[in-house]
Amino acid sequence: MSLLKYESQLREPLIDGDKTYHQVTEDIIGPLETKPTRLWWIGLSIALALLLFGVYSVYREVAYGIGQWNVNRTVGWGWAITNFVWWIGIGHAGTLISAILLLFGQKWRTGVNRAAEAMTIFAVMCAGMFPVFHVGRVWDAFFLFPYPNSRGPVWPNFNSALLWDVFAVSTYFTVSVLFWYTGLLPDLATIRDRAKTKFRKMFYGLTSFGWTGSTKHWQRQESLALVLAGLATPLVLSVHTIVSFDFATSVIPGWHTTIFPPYFVAGAVFSGFAMVNSLLIITRKVLHLEDYITIGHIEAMNKIIVLTGSVVGCAYLSELFVAWYSMNPYEWWAFRENRVNIFSPYGWAYYGMIFCNVVSPQLFWSRKLRRNVLFTFFMSILINVGMWFERFVIFVTSIYRDYLPSSWTTYYSPTIWEIGFYLGTFGLFFTCYFLFAKFFPVIAVAEIKAILKTSGENYKDKMSDLEEMSTGKFYEEEVEHAH
Amino acid sequence: MIKKFVVGSFEDEKVLFAAVKNVRRAGYKIHDVYTPYPIHGLDKAMGLRETSLHTMGFIYGITGTTTALSGMGWIFATDWPLNIGGKPHFPLPAFIPITFELTVLFSAVGMVWTFCWLCKMMPGVKKHHFNLRSTDDLLTMVIECNDSSNTAEIESFLAQNGAIEINTQEAEEGWWFGRYDKEQKLYRTEEVGVGD
After folding, report:
1. Which of A51, A183, A358, B133 has a Cα-to-Cα distance from B10 of 20 to 30 A?
2. H-helix or E-strand containing B30?
3. Which one of A164, A205, A216 has the shortest CB-CB distance to B98?
4. Which of B36, B80, B125 sits opposite A213 (nearest CB)?
């Protein structure tokens, strides 16, 4: 046991300041027990206003039909599907942080995983809206699921990538919620046990499922977390792979490429981490959690951003190369004329994407910029704009000029209701996030406590003499004693 | 069932580990140790066996695999065979994505359900909490007593082993439906002697 309690001085502490277990509880749960600030109310009101506008936009679409949008022949998948893939991509960071980093034993995930998982769940909720309403007759959307029915029975086509998507996204949502909530139980119990008001005792009593902190329960909870992480890791990769199959299994030039799965997954992680950065930079400032979400955490995420941004850049290049190398005139045309040609109708989107996703993240090679909070915040917004461009470029530039040149004059731009739907999902996302930050701990309290004595600043300082000790002596004194 | 417990709380894991060892050696029965965060190795020190939750996860997983494959196979090959572009009625590669997703879904949902079942947890469940600080910063060891136990002796034994808050409590050991904003009354079965 003691062997695990030692961590090299070379590593930056993950929890700054002189903390005790009780202080950790106070710092993270304290803000939930006070009245919300005015800033919170203003934020929530803006989010709700956006949400209402979105609800009205969706109402227009449901009541009058999909003609309320500018989608046409040949651009059948316009903003709706662009936004779907964009949101689902953002929804990848949470599970990546909590599952993959758990398997890799990366301790820094404990500071950011709770908020990132919540963000994942909200992003997937927003993503799900788009295909559901894009089907047109939303009241029939349940036809997507295979169930015995009186129409034959008519079953969905299991060969279709679109149906795989239904299964992938709904499974991903369910598993993310379960993973998030089982991790949340101990923290909800902590709030319950220190609650002073009747409402909090009742609400957190119900939501904590009667968690006691029994050793046996912890043992099961840790086993559950490990297996769920093992399941969620291939799951998170499969989801965006399957989303990319929606395009890759078609025969449209620009979509019909085998590089799509890894390319989409890298892009998803890239945009997801950018969104985690945007949210956490604000959260740590507003809730005064700078000791738990340190500059080190932000730097770690920026490192992942520069890696995945470069992977995405390589994917853009290899896509271009393969289009040329394939000697397929349609393929090459789609890339040369519809994307790379800056004077083509959507040339601005392609170069916007290249600038935001490939060029600008390279600045993160500089340690100074990686550790600059304001710059990171600015970059995180820029990257998400870039990733939206990427989805737009992939979908729209591949289909706005089809095999029939007489259709080419059609320039697709959204109506106010398409934009309203997109803004509405922002409203939904931030409404959920504001409520989450008010009623749930944004940092995993129990997990922070578990690493406090190895990675807390005040505890690390005391380990200097351990570092000088010889291995033999260390084993004798610390390990033997523990067993 | 209402029982008597001696409760001792510790501040440091190192002290707790030694205390667990000594308490077991002395022959007292540890009811449970409640901690605010997972302590690795404590389950072994207490003599608890490894959980087999992951085995259940595997069983649920293969159930999902079979459900997906047999379901899709039955639908496409038996119930309503449809010619889709001349493709086979049981196209295994095309079935892999959904099969994988259902495997994960069954395994995850099943495991969480089993976890809640084993730990007796669901909304509305209430249990006795020996020390409210055990979800904050204290490690609470609870020793179960029987009729012949000398609680004063156990209390002093815990004090020698470094416990800081020590008391004796009578509590219901199981779980029940209840609300946390309400005080709990203990319902005892009155012992009625013959001739009373």
Report:
1. A183
2. strand B29-34
3. A164
4. B36
Does the beta-carbon distance from A174 to B135 stay under 8 Å?
A: no
* Fold for the domain defined by A12-147+154-461: Formate dehydrogenase/DMSO reductase fold (1.20.1630)
Is residue B140 helix, strand or coil?
strand
The residue count for chain A: 483
Token couple for A51: 């949400």
ipTM value: 0.91
Convert chain A into a string of H (helix), E (strand) and C (coil): CHHHHCCCCCCCCCECCCCCHHHHHHHHHHHHHCCCCHHHHHHHHHHHHHHHHHHHHHHHHHHHCHHHCCCCCCCCCCHHHHHHHHHHHHCCHHHHHHHHHHHCCCCCHHHHHHHHHHHHHHHHHHHHHHHHHHCCCHHHHHHHCCCCCCCCCCCCCCCCHHHHHHHHHHHHHHHHHHHHHHHHHHHHHHHHHCCCCHHHHHHHHHHCCCCCCEHHHHHHHHHHHHHHHHHHHHHHHHHHHHHHHHHHCCCCCCCCCCCHHHHHHHHHHHHHHHHHHHHHHHHHHHCCCCCCCCHHHHHHHHHHHHHHHHHHHHHHHHHHHHHHHCCCHHHHHHHHHHHHCCCCCCHHHHHHHHHHHHHHHHHHHCHHHHCCHHHHHHHHHHHHHHHHHHHHHHHHHHHCCCCCHHHCCCCCCCCHHHHHHHHHHHHHHHHHHHHHHHHCCCCCHHHHHHHHHHHEHHHHHCCHHHHHCCHHHHHHHHHHHHC
Q: Which of A26, A147, A192, A219 to mutate to test the interface with B (most CBs of B within 10 A)?
A: A219
Q: How far apart are the first and last CA of chain A?
A: 8
CB proximity A215 to B under 8 Å? yes
Domains of chain B by range and CATH? 2-50+126-195 (3.30.70), 53-119 (no CATH)
Q: In the predicted model, is pLDDT for residue B185 greater than 50?
A: yes
B43, B80, B104: residue with CB nearest A215: B43
pLDDT-derived band at B191, boundaries 50, 70, 90: low
User: Residue B78 burial (CB < 10 Å; 0-12/13-18/19+)?
Assistant: exposed
- First and final C-alpha spacing in chain B: 24
Residue A383 near chain B (CB below 8 Å):
no
Do B108 and A242 lie within an 8 Å CB cutoff? no
pLDDT of residue A391: 92
In this prediction, residue A266 carries a pLDDT of 92
Q: Spell out the per-residue pLDDT of chain A, length 483, in tens.
A: 344 466 677 778 888 888 888 888 988 898 888 888 888 999 999 999 999 999 999 999 999 999 999 888 788 888 999 999 999 999 988 888 888 888 888 888 888 889 999 999 999 999 999 999 998 889 988 888 888 888 878 888 888 999 999 999 999 999 999 999 999 999 999 999 998 899 999 999 999 998 999 999 999 999 999 999 999 999 999 999 999 999 999 888 889 888 999 999 999 999 999 999 999 999 888 888 888 998 989 999 999 999 999 999 999 999 999 999 999 988 998 899 889 999 988 899 999 999 999 999 999 999 999 999 999 999 999 999 999 999 999 988 888 888 888 877 668 889 999 999 999 999 999 999 999 999 999 999 998 888 888 788 777 777 766 666 666 666 666 665 555
Residues of A in contact with B118 (CB under 8 A): 220
